[in-house]
Write a structure and sequence with these properties.
By secondary structure, the chain is an alpha/beta fold. It starts with 8 loop residues before the first strand and ends in a 7-residue tail after the last helix. Bound molecules: pyridoxal-5'-phosphate. The site of pyridoxal-5'-phosphate has 13 residues, from strand 8 and helix 8.
Amino acid sequence: MSRRPEDITLLVVTKTYPAEDVRLLAELGVTDVAENRDQEAKQKAADTADLPLTWHFVGQLQRNKARSVARYADVVHSVDRARLVAPLSAAAEAVDRDLSVLLQVNLDDAVDTGRGGAAVADLMELAAEVAAADRLDLRGVMAVAPRTGDPGAAFARLASVSEEIVESYPGATWISAGMSGDLEAAITNGATHLRIGSAILGHRPSTG
Ligand SMILES: *Cc1c(COP(=O)(O)O)cnc(C)c1O
């Protein structure tokens, strides 16, 4: 698949790195940053509130974090169950914002990976819930490649899931896929948003 660079957005995953690094990235022209933990993201977004950044929340979302995430995140990549939809939309309403939402897809057929993601079979129903929510804009799908196996095959599956979603929701064209270790496979398979941490910022301590 031939891809045009302008069709791909680079998200720099800044988890474990300080707000000063976010500032530096912005000076270098980075427009989109991503975090996976609310506590850390909230503080960093506040510390860099003067910068024109788009904030992406890519970690597992808990219902009790919806209020917090809705205050600083522009895009939430990790909506993977219907129970998150109402709290997230209400939280966005409370701060008079609209949130872009991606449905996180579990591409691993292993039972529960602990990494989040809706089963492919449940996606259309989840898409309908998000599309119907007042303050949420369904923008597409997101996935993390399974720990084992060919990431290309996994991302090809994500691309076909995306096609199906787009048939019903023409505006939901985003495919958030690809991390430092598998970004080429993601690009080949239609990723529109890459989530890159260590390849840009360096190796994180293992707690990250
Ligand atoms: C940490 C993280 C990334 C970035 O991973 P790298 O391997 O450092 O590029 C991407 N997506 C999610 C959901 C993450 O938690």
